[in-house]
Amino acid sequence: MPAQQKKIIFCIAGVLSFACALGTAAAIGTQLWVKGTILCKTGALLVNATGQELEKFIGEIQYGLFYGERVRQCGLGGRPFQFSFFPDLLKIIPASIHVSVVLFCTVLIVFALVGAGFFMFNAFGSPYETLHGPVGLYLWSFIACCCGCLIMILFSSEVKIHHLSEKIANFKEGSFTFKTHSEQFANSFWIVLVCSLVQFLNALLIRFAGFEFPFSKPKDSGRTTGAVDLMY
């Protein structure tokens, strides 16, 4: 492939990687990871609410990695309550998983920025034969993609398996019990998914530029070895 086309491909990959880092950084600071509704189970049982009457006992909840907000509905109108994970909720949530999600988000941002820098360096500079070259580009993209996948897996398990929404809804609730009525992942969660796909796309762009995948055997190795053997 001509050098000019390689520069264009590397520029595109660098811009995508930089956008991935910015998108992940923006997603971390929002509370748009999970949106849902919570049912005041105790209040609904007290009045034996059914049908449309249940709407008076269904509140809302949304949260991210650091803070969130819930609207408590127990038949007397909505009462908003804001909370933060650090340090308020660390005693009731799976703290090790939650901290791991935050750390992997940070690693994703760092390696996406590193990848963007090396993509631009390979486009406009003279790439080295070590980690500055194609092997390094594969490495940065692979690490960032794996971090994105781990973020989604860990956060999904935290929400679905450990029932994070219910634990948050019942935080500092003595006499009332809340149950998750519905929940869904919001925009910030899907941004991380898009960033993971972008890093995988970058690896394909490197391959499209004409560079072999790391640790792949060259096609001419067998022929060269055979020719050398015939000489002796």
UniProtKB/TrEMBL annotation:
<keyword id="KW-0472">Membrane</keyword>
<keyword id="KW-0812">Transmembrane</keyword>
<dbReference type="Pfam" id="PF25807">
    <property type="entry name" value="Clarin-2"/>
</dbReference>
<dbReference type="GO" id="GO:0016020">
    <property type="term" value="C:membrane"/>
</dbReference>
<dbReference type="InterPro" id="IPR026748">
    <property type="entry name" value="Clarin"/>
</dbReference>
<feature type="transmembrane region" description="Helical">
    <location>
        <begin position="97"/>
        <end position="123"/>
    </location>
</feature>
<protein>
    <submittedName>
        <fullName>CLRN1 protein</fullName>
    </submittedName>
</protein>
<feature type="transmembrane region" description="Helical">
    <location>
        <begin position="135"/>
        <end position="155"/>
    </location>
</feature>
<dbReference type="GO" id="GO:0050957">
    <property type="term" value="P:equilibrioception"/>
</dbReference>
<feature type="transmembrane region" description="Helical">
    <location>
        <begin position="189"/>
        <end position="209"/>
    </location>
</feature>
<keyword id="KW-1133">Transmembrane helix</keyword>
<comment type="similarity">
    <text>Belongs to the clarin family.</text>
</comment>
<dbReference type="GO" id="GO:0007605">
    <property type="term" value="P:sensory perception of sound"/>
</dbReference>
